[in-house]
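Take a careful look at the protein record below. Let me know whether the structure tokens fit the sequence:
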Amino acid sequence: MVTEALDILGSGVSDEIPEIKWYYGDDLCDCPLQNIGWRTNPYTARTFKIRLCCLYEELGKMFPHLVQSIPAFEDYRNNDELLTEPLRWNSEDADMPRYLWYRQLMAITGLPMAEVRRLYADKEPPKRVPEGMGVRLTEAWENLGQPDSR
């Protein structure tokens, strides 16, 4: 699955500027926890990006004794409680991004990502909830320590 995704990504170590721009939430791989490492420096005119999610999956295959894949959200804000059910979308300031919705559907249904994309391509992700009925995504995102998605 990861190898096929990497073929589509069309990247690699090169002196060429890639045609496909990677960013958090780009939905270019099937990883449930998409994560892109990024370093850039204007003084060297260089940028380095790495699909950490895909790398972690490949490293897990090579070194399974060094990886824990836990089928639960470890709620570090609540005594590390393990939550096994995906949280319903509860943002007051944003609709659920399609890439995240696909991964949530994959977790709920157990279907492979390709099938989720096919079945839900013409449907809309959850919308924001009324003010006072959920959380402010920008505040929650800051608390998670995640980079902004596009």
Residues 92 and 130 are 6 Å apart (CA to CA).
